[in-house]
Amino acid sequence: MKKLIDFDKEGFKKEVITNVKTLYRRPIEEATPQQVFQAVSYAVKDDIIDRWIATHKEYEKKNVKTVYYLSMEFLMGRALGNNLINLTYYDAVKEALDELGFDLNLIEDQEPDAALGNGGLGRLAACFLDSLATLGYPAYGCGIRYRYGMFKQAIKDGYQIELPDDWLKDGNPFEIKRPEYAVEVKFGGYVRVENRDGRNYFIQDGYQTVRAVPYDVPVVGYGNNVVNTLRIWDAEADQEFCLDSFDKGEYEKAVEQQNLAKTIVEVLYPNDNHYAGKELRLRQQYFFISASVQRAILKFKEKNSDIHNLPDKVTFQMNDTHPTVAVAELMRILMDEEGLEWDDAWDITTRTCAYTNHTIMAEALEKWPIELFSRLLPRIYQIVEEINRRFVLKIQSMYPGNQDKVKNMAILYDGQVKMAHLAIAGSYSVNGVAALHTKILEERELKDFYEMRPEQFNNKTNGITQRRFLLHGNPLLASWITDKIGDEWIVKLSNLKKLKVYATDEKYQQEFMNIKYQNKIRLANYIKEHNGVDVDPRSIFDVQVKRLHEYKRQLLNILHVMYQYNELKTNPSYDMYPTTYIFGAKASAGYKRAKLIIKLINSVADVINNDASIKGKIKVVFIENYRVSNAELIFAAADVSEQISTASREASGTGNMKFMLNGAVTLGTMDGANVEIVEEVGEENAVIFGLRAEEVMKYEREGGYNPKDIYNNDAAVRTVLTQLINGMYSSDDPDRFRDLYDSLINEDVYFILKDFASYVEAHRKIDTLYRDEKNWAKMVMLNTACSGKFSSDRTIEEYAKEIWNLKKVKVTLD
Ligand code: Z2T
């Protein structure tokens, strides 16, 4: 498999030298690493372009069905290394650069992450694009070209500071602006009716318009010449309108127009699993959806004469409810521009749109005030009203006289537009992202919708791409695996099961654990350089990296660290294996409690890391600015994977899969995809604790539980809680963490105290297991060996067959 794509090393070196010369008028010896990065990227792009053109020629020739993955977020990370990997000449380029006197790793470090996403949902979209291209499925990713992506996190005095992510400042060598595909998007104004040939047409007037201009980013498939497109939209002022305004002397209007365009794509909202209800966010949604859907229809019409065939050629997959205005926008285009009647348009729309749900967290549900929605999108609102009217009629005919059903399922209710209901009404498929999550949707959250149309519901357990998170992120393990079982795992991860036979062999155990050790040294060096903290690579690396959210329970983790520290200090017989607790997490800028938890973690780190009396048994490290690029280092170096969400709350999780793939043991609750991880690897090769989802939901139905019972009965818990408010970790301000204390004592909605004892026990078990070196090695090797299911290639095959009905395409270069 290695030599899938030819590589001309001398030619490549020449091209890099030429690029440095023409871009910077410099000889290669004097080029900065950033300049070399640019020069190498342009050389790589040259190879990509031919395949990109060939791919689209093939798609057009075959007039294939295409999926449009509509997403507000694509958390792509860096492109250069990934593109080299997928072009199958990463090692060759490394060699070529060596010969020119540069280290590819350092060159890769010059590239900013493309952080156009928050966390799991955005990274999933990026993994899906990688798998779609690798499997040869025709696909577009459609999103927004945010001027500023996910903020850069700095830690100052233990507090999170948000800094702007100026990711485009040096230019983005891989993107291509496509002004020839620009379209207009209309906001505001009013709707009037015009009668033409005896049919009423609805016309939006008095609107403001924004020009949507696409930038195309290549998505390279692994070793197969396929290059798909991520199309991200930029907003520009409408030039003609502006000129017109200048003529009339309406200078202010013109400037206003400029600003409207600029602000739309200015910044990614940094909320994970949280709906903030900002008008600008709705503008962003309609902006990229209108542009994407318009362009998709125009493209369809180039090759197809009958709009009724749209569902045979196009699927719009909506990544959560954020793109759900697509349902109404498609209706608008079909009726107002293609001249179809309602029933026809609705039939086409509901055979073209599909919806993925990513959370059951109530605070994430999008419910737009009708006042705002109708003012910003008057024609779209009219259409939503009619969708709702007909949908409510359907509910009433199925459940005569049952007002509860209308209340629970209507799209318009209580002065709000409920986007999830619109998404379900307008889609032919509704899927959850892990088996447990889908079950909870069917049995609880979306029960009424499931009962109305059970065949609409399906599960698609998430996955991750092994190309980035093993082949690129963990080169030592990748080549060890290839030595053992060949390299087909790169495109067929289920092959990893062939590693099972090595898991009990001492020689191979040593090789595997030595690779883990090398990766721990690599991470220790990163931590030393970025945190100034020394960590011992021989200690257990216990890692929790993910967005900071109460339901993910980083607080449970750090409370346990505080507990262990107490044991070390007060219990002479307490013995623990040296452990390094590693955290990485961004908190949404407005999420006070989450930010306080970050401060607590850093405060605990300060105290414990500087207490010589515990002889380095515990170290706590908070890795600043956790993101895709440093995640690759972190997963490779982890021994223990903390997946400790309150059961039922984490829809799937995908970090859990990246840890497993890289040979870490899951310490987790029976939540999201953890359930399936345990199913694959076996209970004895994971450490599971805490309430089960059923139990959590039962408590909730019965009004919660009483955390004071635990406070009163568990002395260790009492001590730890008291330390939140006695200044032990906040001597300058003993009340700093009182909010956390109060929330735990009074409500504890995430069952942290309830699960505490069980979590302590789980950690004891990890400690014991780790000391048994051979068994531990076997466990981690089996985790890698059993992770095949969690490739996004498997996930995408399921979407392609069961939802999208896509056909694979082969691309050859002539
Ligand atoms: C997000 O990252 C997720 C769900 C959301 O619901 C929003 C965002 Cl930004 C609206 C996550 C889930 O929390 C996680 O469990 C899941 O693995 C991931 O989406 C991908 O499905």
From TrEMBL:
Keywords: Carbohydrate metabolism, Glycosyltransferase, Pyridoxal phosphate, Transferase. Allosteric enzyme that catalyzes the rate-limiting step in glycogen catabolism, the phosphorolytic cleavage of glycogen to produce glucose-1-phosphate, and plays a central role in maintaining cellular and organismal glucose homeostasis. Signal peptide: none annotated. Its cofactor is pyridoxal 5'-phosphate. It is an enzyme of class 2 (transferase). The lineage of its organism: Bacteria, Bacillati, Bacillota, Clostridia, Lachnospirales. Pfam families: Phosphorylase. Belongs to the glycogen phosphorylase family. It catalyses: [(1->4)-alpha-D-glucosyl](n) + phosphate = [(1->4)-alpha-D-glucosyl](n-1) + alpha-D-glucose 1-phosphate. GO terms for molecular function: 1,4-alpha-oligoglucan phosphorylase activity. Its EC number is 2.4.1.1. It comes from the Bacteria. Gene3D superfamilies: Glycogen Phosphorylase B (3.40.50.2000). This is Alpha-1,4 glucan phosphorylase.
